[in-house]
């Protein structure tokens, strides 16, 4: 069996993205995640199961099984844009590491075709899994949501020890360009102390390319209703521009990395 024959489960492919890695990119969203972040804007990504979701246009099936070769047919369509912009393929989710064989085959196939690769991930898998993928990832966009294990567990369902350990190992490997991304979520981590702690952690990693603060938004709210789930963040107001600027200054004051708002 070749990499092109490996099957996996995705719920979307988005072309022409400019926020998830360098240049113009095609984002492949893999189904399944081990966390249950309260603010998740893609709740349809969390379960590995194929689901139905009510939308304005009717009931939609979320999730389909595809081969790497089928995904690459779509990815190949924008090869000209990747060449001109420095873009390529980005794996997202969910957490791509929940389908390690599929993610590996996608990344390896893209690299063998000369297409640059990126992954958006919080690094929540055994190190032996992460390690296998690293040689095929040009850019690792690593979510670090909090430095406190208890608070991380309270808001996402899991402690962060494994993720923070993996962050150190990914950085030390030198195999990929590492960017730390922080979802800034009021009541969870949108304070100076919490952002300062994340910035200091990121600063202590070797060779981090940058620290991106991503403001919480409510764009996923309707999807919760569509899935018949309660949206527990309904009362949480997204951070103001003023607060984001304050937190950006805090991040800059606590690390020597390039810091910015947005991806
Ligand atoms: S890690 Fe990402 S995909 Fe998974 S639940 Fe959290 S926000 Fe959603």
Report on the architecture of this protein.
There is one protein chain. The protein is an alpha/beta fold and 263 residues long. The protein is 34% helix and 25% strand. The protein contains nine helices and eleven strands. The chain has helices spanning 68-76, 79-85, 100-112, 127-133, 149-156, 161-173, 192-204, 221-226, 241-253; strands at 7-17, 25-30, 51-55, 58-62, 64-67, 88-92, 116-121, 139-143, 177-184, 208-215, 259-261. The chain has a nine-stranded mixed beta sheet. It has a two-stranded antiparallel ribbon with strand order 3-4. Helix 4 links the parallel strand 7 and strand 8. Helix 7 (192-204) crosses helix 9. The protein is globular. The model has no long low-confidence stretch (mean pLDDT 97). The structure holds iron/sulfur cluster (SF4).
Task: Label this structure with key terms.
two-stranded antiparallel sheet; 9-stranded mixed sheet; globular; 9 helices; alpha/beta; binds iron/sulfur cluster
Please sum up the structure shown.
The protein is an alpha/beta fold. Helices cover 34% and strands 25% of the residues. The strands form two sheets. The protein has a nine-stranded mixed β-sheet. Strands 3-4 form a two-stranded antiparallel ribbon.
H and E order: EEEEEHHEHEHEHHEHEHHE
Which residues form runs of ≥5 with pLDDT under 50? none
Total strands: the figure is 11
The percent range for helix content is: 25-40%
**What class would the helix/strand composition place it in?**
alpha/beta
What would you call the shape? Answer: globular
């Amino acid at each position: 069996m070749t990499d092109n024959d490996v099957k996996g489960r995705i719920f979307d492919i988005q072309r022409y993205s400019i926020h998830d890695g360098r240049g113009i990119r095609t984002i492949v969203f893999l189904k399944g995640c081990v966390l249950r972040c309260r603010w998740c804007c893609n709740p349809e990504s969390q379960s590995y199961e194929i689901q139905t979701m009510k939308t304005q246009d009717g009931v939609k099936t979320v999730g389909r099984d595809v081969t790497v070769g089928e995904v690459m047919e779509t990815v190949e369509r924008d090869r000209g844009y990747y060449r001109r912009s420095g873009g390529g393929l980005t794996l997202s989710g969910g957490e791509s590491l929940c389908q390690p064989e599929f993610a590996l085959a996608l990344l390896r196939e893209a690299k063998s075709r000369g297409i640059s690769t990126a992954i958006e991930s919080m690094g929540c898998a055994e190190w032996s899994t992460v390690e296998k993928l690293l040689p095929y990832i040009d850019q690792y966009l690593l979510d670090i949501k909090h430095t406190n294990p208890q608070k991380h567990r309270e808001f996402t369902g899991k402690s962060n020890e494994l993720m923070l350990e993996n962050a150190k190992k990914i950085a030390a490997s030198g195999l990929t360009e590492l960017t730390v991304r922080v979802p800034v979520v009021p009541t969870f981590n949108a304070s100076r102390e919490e952002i300062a702690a994340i910035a200091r952690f990121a600063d202590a990693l070797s060779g981090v390319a940058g620290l991106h603060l991503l403001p919480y938004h409510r764009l996923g709210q309707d999807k919760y209703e569509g899935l018949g789930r309660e949206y527990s963040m309904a009362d949480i107001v997204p951070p103001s521009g003023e607060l984001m600027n304050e937190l950006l200054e805090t991040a800059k004051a606590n690390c020597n990395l390039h810091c910015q708002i947005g991806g």
